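Take a look at this chain, tokens included, and explain the fold to me:
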Amino acid sequence: MQSGLKKKLFVAAVALGFAMAVPGAVVAGDTIKLGVAGAQSGDLASYGLPTVKAAELVVAQYNAKGGINGKKVELLVEDDICKPEVATNSATLLVTKGVDVVLGHICSGATKAALPIYKEAGIVVMSPSATNPDLTQSGDYPNFFRTIASDDAQAKTEVDFAIGTIGAKKIAVIHDKGDYGKGLAEFAKVFVEKSGKAEVVLFEGVTPGAVDYTAIVQKIKRSGADAVIFGGYHPEASKIVSMMKKKRMDIVFISDDGVKDDTFIKVAGENAEGVYASGPQDNSKNPLSAASIEAHKAAYNADPGAFYENAYSAALALLNAIEKAGSTDMAAVVKALQTEKVDTPVGTIYFDERGDAVGVGFAMYQVQNGQYVEVKK
């Protein structure tokens, strides 16, 4: 079945099934519908809200010049609070409303849960932050793309920094048991073991949302580790770091882009000082990066948050692909994404056959005087 027809039939079927639950759901119209899905509430809202703002700015930019092929771009936003069970509902609602492409989801677990729904509907999805390697490397989701490098690249960056720059010999690898955190930690463990220059002295998961992380901190202390690599998000990282400081443990703490967020610094306070985290490469020398940040400041009177530039770039890439393809048909959009380069805040990019952006990568940052600063290897 042709993907365009398949999409229309699937949307119609879903719309009928959810008509009672979603009054007034839109399934057709004269606009190009850009969906945005991610955490806009809850503990991880600081990751999802910047994506909404990025999409708002890019949509306004497109509509100011007349839209795409005579059609204005309409924004449809759903909150999945970064939970897989909610993400499936968010995806279904967006499909019901006739979404053409989706910017999101934010967390890897939520993205993985939602992707089969979009695939069945013939809808292209692009995440600014879902880094789990299997999302592209499994080959299960030809409709999925992302503007951030995957966790194997991120873990390699962290391990190379821990061993080559910090000089760590004994590393405790901790994770939050989720698709994102555990996946990254497993790659880190492999890279440490393959290095031949350091050893993993502890590998263990923690329970997200726990009030007290004394037990894992004591295990880290007993392990004799001189560095910790943590895979997960800022709520758990802030508690673990604070407990380590309380126990007067002078151990290097290295984490990921789930922690490279100003919210971590706000929550952990002075305990955040000295913490290292990997994050998307610095794009400050890119004029489009500077322009996108200034646009955010002008519109919202604030600096942008986590993954903003990746989200801004994803929105540009999706709409550019629709414009170049002259269609919202999945096959046509996929082809345009893989063949048409687009200038974005993260660079001039296109996407490989797996859906990964060519030309993006990670850098290392450290909290210095209350803000993240890039550090060189």
Remarks:
- Confidence is low (pLDDT under 50) at residues 1-28.
- The radius of gyration is 21 Å.
